[in-house]
Amino acid sequence: MKKLILMLFIVTFIFAVAPSKVFAQNTAKHGEMTGRTLVYGLTSLLIWPGIGQFLNHNETKKNITHAIIGFFPPFRLWSGWDALIARQGGRWNGKI
To answer: CA–CA separation, 14 vs 22, rounded Å?
Structure first.
C-alpha cells in the first residue's frame, strides 16, 4: 500500500513539474448546441461513439479515435458530449 501511494505521489509530481511544451496545444473550437448537435450527441452516446463526430464533419483521425476509445464507459460520455457541443479540433499531432 505504501509503494502504491509513493508511486502515485511520484507520478503526480512529475506531471506537476513537466514543462507545458510536453503537452499538446488545445486547438478545440466549441460550436453551438442546436437540435442537430443534440441528435448527433445522442447517437454518439447511445448507438456508436464517433458517429456524432463524423456527422459534425470532424477530421477522420478524430472520428476513429472516438470510435475506438469510446467503447470504454467513461469515454462514451466524452464522445457524446463532444458531439453535442459540436467541438472541432482538439489535441492531436502525436500528443494525445
So the answer is: 12
Residue-wise pLDDT tens digits, 27-68: 667 778 888 888 998 998 888 888 988 998 888 888 888 888
Measured between alpha carbons, how far is 80 from 66 in angstroms, rounded to an integer? 9
How far apart are alpha carbons 57 and 60 in whole angstroms?
9
Q: Please state, in angstroms and rounded to a whole number, the distance separating the CA atoms of residues 70 and 49.
A: 5
Question: 4 is written with which cell numbers?
Answer: 502504491
Residues 6+ apart with CB under 8 A from 46: 80
Residue 57 to residues 22, 40, 52, 63: CA-CA distances in angstroms? Answer: 29, 11, 9, 9
- Each domain of the chain, given as residue ranges in start order, spans 27-84
Kindly list the distances between the CA atom of residue 33 and the CA atoms of 13, 36, 42, 67, in Å, as whole numbers in the listed order.
38, 8, 12, 21
Q: How far apart are CA 54 and CA 41, in angstroms?
A: 11
Please check whether residue 54 is in contact with residue 86, taking contact to mean a CB–CB distance below 8 angstroms. Answer: no
